Amino acid sequence: xxxxxxxxxxxxxxxxxxxxEGQQLEIIDKIGDEPVIDPESGENLGYLNIxxxxxxxxxVFPKMSIAEAPSETYSMFDQLTGTFKMPSTTIQSDLNVxxxxxxxxxxxxxxxxxxxxxxxxxxxx
Length: 125
Prior knowledge:
Order of helices and strands: EEEEEEEEE
Shape: flat
Number of strands: 9
Largest sheet: 5 strands, antiparallel
Helix content: under 10%
Oligomer: single chain
């Protein structure tokens, strides 16, 4: 994983792992170092996890994906008319990332013109 900003991360799973654009992912933290064991069967049931945050996949590559903090849309309510005012406002949350681990944003789009021989890729839609 790579932290791009307080709103975007790179996850080390992509289309080859079944990740799709718009898919919601959860970043988890393991509780404790010991697995939960079923007392009757002795089976290892895994670890208890707590959520560190949720992200939504915005771009998918074969072996990695860019995921972003969710956004919420708010509309102001006009008490005089009893209606919601338009336009609404969309605010993207910040992820609770360690600021020391932010490695910079994405490269800017190229201003170079399209040329014969440029690579063309299929967009996952």
